[in-house]
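note to self: dont lose this again. the chain is below, predicted strucutre after it. 228 aa total, dont forget to put it in the shared folder this time
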Amino acid sequence: MPASHDHGPRPMAEALSEAAPLTRQQRRLLDTLVDMGRAVTVVELANEVDSHPNTVREHLAVLEEHGLVTATSMPSQGRGRPRKEYRATSGSQGAPARHLVGLINAALRSFPDETARSDGYRWGQTWGDDIVESGLLNTREGAVEAVTSLMADMGFAPRASLRSPSCLQLTQCPLLTEGQEIPKGLCDIHQGMLDQVLKKEKVGASAFVEPFAEPNACRLTVAEHQRR
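---
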């Protein structure tokens, strides 16, 4: 059952998007909180970033307003107001993504060997349907630019090959886990997603993924079809 605006947690992507308008000082403060990995007082944080507590307190108020930081009032020790401790809500750097990748890899390993590739491909097709439905793909600049932007947004760090601008080197993979065997069907997810997106968008193009085809990269070729 999907979460409503009033019930359940908000999507992590929404929380991350809140970081976009932050100032450099606010982003530094948030990164420091993430690195510290625990609840800290204003004074502790101010000492860590070598800043005045009042300045840190102002920035924390902005971060809390965006939902990137939570504040907890601690019991007062003696006289005075209860002190507050602040904690980043985004988890350790990269940790949420690592756990989600682990979940995907575990699910892929549950597929029977004989159907793993076709099952992964069907997963990708469903993913592609969702992408089209969400309107994330911008095709106004053509198929190559649309695919490049989409893969960049997903974290594949595409780079145009010297051989052709329609041949991309995917220099990162958001679904790989260091030190673990690549489960069957993983790369087929990407192929199924691209096939479905380009088919549904009717941009007159196809894409072909060649896993680990180049040193430190997979190869993705976008072929734009000639119209008759």
